[in-house]
Automatic annotation (TrEMBL):
This is LLM class flavin-dependent oxidoreductase. It holds the Pfam family Bac_luciferase. CDD domains: Nitrilotriacetate_monoxgenase. It comes from the Bacteria. InterPro entries: Diverse_substr_monoxygenases, Luciferase-like_dom, Luciferase-like_sf, NTA_MOA. The keyword Flavoprotein applies. Belongs to the NtaA/SnaA/DszA monooxygenase family. FMN binds at D57, T103, Y157, S227, S228. It comes from Rhodovarius crocodyli. One of its GO terms (molecular function) is oxidoreductase activity, acting on paired donors, with incorporation or reduction of molecular oxygen. Residues 24-384 form the Luciferase-like domain. Keywords: Flavoprotein, FMN, Monooxygenase, Oxidoreductase.
């Protein structure tokens, strides 16, 4: 029987995708800049046999809502308080199997910088690195890098294609056995096995070779979350993991069916790319405890932060926009298509207006371990997905509860690994145990 994959959605800050999660009494706030926080995070996920954890990241503080960053950062939105590339080596040091993912934007970085950093991490982790490829989503990021606004989405994806092709050329500059280190002969490296990249594309060029030898995986596992038609096609060409955020199982089935067609059009088998929808859970020892936990979480949500967070995701100021048409027009090239899709699906599923949906925090599924496992197993066995991306409503409580209560239930049902089958992230994706 095949088994599902689990990936954790992480932030270098106390709030992930659930607004105001940092206000929960169990959320740790005194260790935000302590290496021990990230060591604990990594060991917690590896003990629960997660495939990987990846850090969602942005290169600025969104100032979409009311044309200021005051509500977003002042009330505790999804802000990266540290560069994830600095904490991933800390996490690699205390684990041996957990995949480790960084979010890096092709719009704002050149390929040599990207290829170099990711190859270094792949060496240090012995082959466990993933790259969540993004093109940027809000204008604050663009302005931090010399643009007046986000470039056109099609241009961003064209550049992303170019950057990935350049990175691939750089990663292939060294053969596996090019580094010799033979003291007696004095041969440090066999230069016949090292070559220039000599890559020239429409947006970027790089000569190479990299100074980093070929890493254990050769190249990182590519994770992608594009939901627009252009983003899906990009994922079908490059990605090995696709992170999506449909609001219903039916929407996920439609997404999966569309991705399979696109993968085949690129000459790839469907099993070469795992589909991982987002699932936010609250686990309780009984159903009533779970519901009480969920209600408490919802009671500490700051409504202004919800609007500020959703404004950032949609790329438009929701303080004066109350229809999807006005939102799309106002967003221009900013915003995340997956968030727009999720909003539309939620409106339909719950029979609510756009204005109501815009004011709702991320939906939480509350239940006992068996109830949560029932939902996950149903989605998985129905073919809607290959596993899930799990954000924490509260860090570290969500992962502590999930690892202690839900993982054993999934293992008992035979749908999740008891041990890792491989050493590298790619091996564990191909063989989930």
């Amino acid at each position: 029987m095949s088994k599902m994959h689990l990936v954790a959605y992480l932030k270098t800050g106390p709030t992930a995708s659930f607004a105001s999660g940092w206000r929960h009494p169990s959320a740790t706030l005194d260790d935000l800049f302590e290496p021990a926080r990230f060591e604990y995070m990594a060991k917690l996920l590896e003990d629960a046999r997660f495939d990987a954890g990846f850090f969602a990241d942005g290169l600025g503080i969104p100032d979409v809502y009311r044309n200021t960053f005051a509500d977003y950062v002042g009330r505790g939105g999804q802000v990266s308080l540290l560069d994830p590339m600095t904490v991933l080596p800390i996490m690699a040091r205390v684990t041996s199997r957990l995949g480790l993912g960084a979010t890096l934007a092709t719009t704002f970085h050149n390929p040599y910088y990207l290829a170099r950093g990711l190859a270094s991490l792949d060496h240090l982790s012995k082959g466990r690195v993933a790259w969540n490829v993004v093109t940027g989503s809000h204008n604050a990021e663009a302005r931090n890098h010399g643009f007046d606004a986000m470039p056109d989405k099609n241009m961003r994806y064209e550049r992303a294609e170019d950057v990935l092709a350049a990175c691939a050329a750089l990663w292939d500059c060294w053969d596996e056995d090019a580094l010799v280190l033979d003291r007696e002969s004095g041969v440090y490296a066999d230069t016949s096995k090292i070559r220039y990249a000599d890559y020239k594309g429409p947006y970027v060029s790089t000569r190479g070779p990299m100074s980093m030898p070929r890493s254990p995986q050769g190249r990182p596992v590519i994770l992608q979350a594009g939901s627009s038609p252009r983003g899906r096609d990009f994922a079908a060409k490059w990605a090995e993991m696709v992170f999506c955020s449909p609001a219903t199982k039916e929407a996920c089935l439609e997404f999966r069916e569309d991705m399979v067609k696109r993968l085949r059009a690129h000459g790839r088998a469907p099993e070469e790319c795992v589909i991982l929808p987002s699932l936010s859970v609250v686990v309780g020892e009984t159903e009533s405890i779970a519901i009480e936990k969920k209600e408490f979480l919802e009671s500490i949500v700051d409504p202004e932060l919800v609007l500020a967070s959703n404004s950032a995701l949609l790329g438009v100021d929701l303080s004066d926009v109350e229809s999807p048409e006005a939102a799309d027009q106002g967003a221009g090239s900013a915003g995340v298509q997956g968030s727009r899709d999720r909003m539309a699906q939620r409106m339909k599923a719950e029979g609510i207006s756009y204005a109501q949906a815009a004011r709702k925090p991320r939906g939480l599924i509350a239940g006992t371990p068996a109830m949560i496992a029932d939902i996950m197993e149903d989605w998985f066995r129905s073919g809607a997905c290959d596993g899930f991306v799990l954000p924490p409503a509260v860090f570290p409580l969500t992962y502590e509860d999930f690892g202690r209560m839900v993982v054993p239930e999934l293992q008992k049902r035979g749908v999740f690994r008891r041990e890792y089958a491989g050493r590298t992230l790619r091996e564990n994706l191909r063989n989930p145990g």
